[in-house]
């Protein structure tokens, strides 16, 4: 995969927001937190991820460039909240009450579990499957698992096994 270069001004905006939210959390919780490492190696449709033991935040450079301020305002606090919840409470549910507390009370940001950014530019090939009630789009990874006999997917609506859609 070709790496995407994030402009320096955007990297600086990310760091400003991360440091501001980290200071906000430190003031509220009366704890000095180390600054997490931030890198731009997240791939696919995921905007970001927190590596708890490494105290690291991975960001998707393509989604950051395409969504800039909205990405910074939503994703940076979201991933930082995972690190802070881990630091304060230990191993907890990823989007559980501790994480929501950090998001809403400490960082003063809505606790949204997923982003709403367009993923058209980062989405890999899609395979169409169907069941009795609807069409489904599966990723290449899901499709390959089906081909290798390692997985089968069931529709949550009708409970029927998904089959490749007829062309």
Automatic annotation (TrEMBL):
Statement: the UniProt record of this protein carries the keyword Repeat: no
Active site: 79
Cofactor: Zn(2+)
Superkingdom, taxonomy of origin: Bacteria
GO-annotated biological processes: response to stress
Location of the SprT-like domain: 16-165
Assigned GO CC terms: cytoplasm
Keywords: Cytoplasm, Metal-binding, Zinc
Pfam (any one): Zn_ribbon_SprT
Keyword Mitochondrion: no
Cofactor note: Binds 1 zinc ion.
GO molecular function: zinc ion binding
Amino acids binding Zn(2+): 78, 82
Subcellular location: Cytoplasm
HAMAP family for the chain: SprT (MF_00746)
Family: Belongs to the SprT family.
Protein name: Protein SprT
Species per Swiss-Prot/TrEMBL record: Xenorhabdus mauleonii
Name of the coding gene: sprT
């Amino acid at each position: 995969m070709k790496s995407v270069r994030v402009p320096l001004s955007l990297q600086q905006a990310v760091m400003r927001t991360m440091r501001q939210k980290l200071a906000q959390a430190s003031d509220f919780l009366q704890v000095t937190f180390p600054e997490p490492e931030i890198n731009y190696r997240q791939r696919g449709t995921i905007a970001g991820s927190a590596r708890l033991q490494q105290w690291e935040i991975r960001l998707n450079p393509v989604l950051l460039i395409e969504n800039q301020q909205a990405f910074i305002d939503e994703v940076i606090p979201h991933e930082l909240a995972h690190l802070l919840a881990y630091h304060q409470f230990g191993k907890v549910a990823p989007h559980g009450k501790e994480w929501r507390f950090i998001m809403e009370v400490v960082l003063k940001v809505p606790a949204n579990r997923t982003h709403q950014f367009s993923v058209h530019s980062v989405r890999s090939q899609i395979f169409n499957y169907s069941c009795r009630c609807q069409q489904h789009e599966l990723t290449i990874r899901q499709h390959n698992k089906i081909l290798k006999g390692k997985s089968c997917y069931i529709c949550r609506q009708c409970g029927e096994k998904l089959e490749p859609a007829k062309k």
